[in-house]
Amino acid sequence: MTAEATQPTSADTASTPTPAAAPAGREKTAIPKNPGRRDLGMKATLLFPNKDIVEQYYVPLIYTACRTCYSELAPDDIFDRATDGRVEIAKMQKLISGVIESGHGSTIEHVVFTFGISGVSRTLSHQLVRHRAGVAFDQQSQRYVTFKGASTMLPASIEDADPLLRGRYEEQIERSMGLYGELVGAGIPGEDARFVFPNATRTNLVMTTNLRALIHMSGLRLCTMAQWEIRRLFQLIRHEIFQVSPFLGSFLAPKCVPLGYCDEMGNRDQHCPIRPHKDNVLAAWAEKSKAAKAAGRELPVR
Ligand SMILES: Cc1cc2nc3c(=O)[nH]c(=O)nc-3n(C[C@H](O)[C@H](O)[C@H](O)COP(=O)(O)OP(=O)(O)OC[C@H]3O[C@@H](n4cnc5c(N)ncnc54)[C@H](O)[C@@H]3O)c2cc1C
């Protein structure tokens, strides 16, 4: 089970409603340039659990956590019933979906996923390890590993840039890497020589996350406002989860999908059309409310 960075990169598979009109006078910008389908040389592999474990235990485990809140039965009885087929999968999934939608997040902290992540840049890893709650990381050390040939990530915008400019970028990277080799060769410890490494340097990590944290991180990082590389990583991660459970994978979506609207300041012009911006939703509501008042009726609040 390995997702490589050549998977389709569409923002999400959810249906896309027609956005409300952008405020007059604002110029539409484009969705931030992303590398499309090109191979970035990064990988995300679900190391644990495998499909059998997910199918046999993960949904029953979450169901047991949810059901314990509302049942006289002991958790072990609920778990036995869930795993031996006495509770239908559809029934378990319905309860779990409802509980997730209601935001009762502790119930989905009982299951974890471990990913091997390789070939990502230090730019990405710096963003990734900012997530604190419900997630653990171990990262390849630049102190303990003395690199013979550290490789780097080439952003698509630079790959496609004026060849002279791209050449200068590549020279700069090569010079940094060359100097690293010289410093190490001269007896400078790797932990000091690494100071010349650029942000583009690739790295490897192991990440273990519970489902709640994974949904939260995916909400932020699958958003089209996220940086292209980390967005691609979460597309690969989502692909991996879909391989073992389309049901659990369906909860990994840009945050606007469960919210129903976009809350990103940078998308007030609605250049990203996945969901309407909240300013437009509120403006549409205010207009509807005003029209209803003028007609002598109140809008029903559902
Ligand atoms: C598009 C984008 C742009 C960004 N730009 C920048 C930037 O320019 N500069 C920068 O520094 N960072 C930036 N970040 C990082 C961002 O500020 C967060 O640090 C990062 O996304 C981690 O998310 P989180 O805070 O939800 O943390 P997580 O650790 O994933 O926490 C999950 C949730 O748990 C709760 N939680 C966790 N810890 C605490 C706590 N100590 N107290 C109370 N509640 C807690 C919060 O509800 C939190 O949302 C950016 C992130 C994104 C997605």
Number of strands: 5
Query: Which ligands accompany this protein?
Result: flavin-adenine dinucleotide
Mean pLDDT: 89
* Net shape: flat
Overview of the molecule:
The protein is an alpha+beta fold and 302 residues long. It folds into three domains: 1-9 and 38-142 and 199-257, Gyrase A, domain 2; 156-196; 260-302, no CATH class. The chain contains twelve helices and five strands. Strands 1-2-3-5-4 form a five-stranded antiparallel sheet. Helix 1 (51-68) crosses helix 3 (89-101). The two termini are 44 Å apart.
Provide a concise account of the structure shown.
This protein is 43% helix and 11% strand. It has twelve helices and five strands.
Q: What are the salient characteristics of this protein?
A:
302 residues; alpha+beta; Gyrase A, domain 2; 5-stranded antiparallel β-sheet; 12 helices; 5 strands; binds flavin-adenine dinucleotide
Topology at a glance:
Layout: E1 2-4, E2 43-48, H1 51-68, H2 75-83, H3 89-101, E3 112-121, H4 122-128, E4 135-139, H5 156-159, H6 163-185, H7 190-193, E5 202-210, H8 211-221, H9 228-244, H10 246-249, H11 256-259, H12 278-294
Antiparallel strand pairs: 1-2, 2-3, 3-5, 4-5
Flavin-adenine dinucleotide (FAD) binds at residues 130-133, 216-217, 220, 225-226.
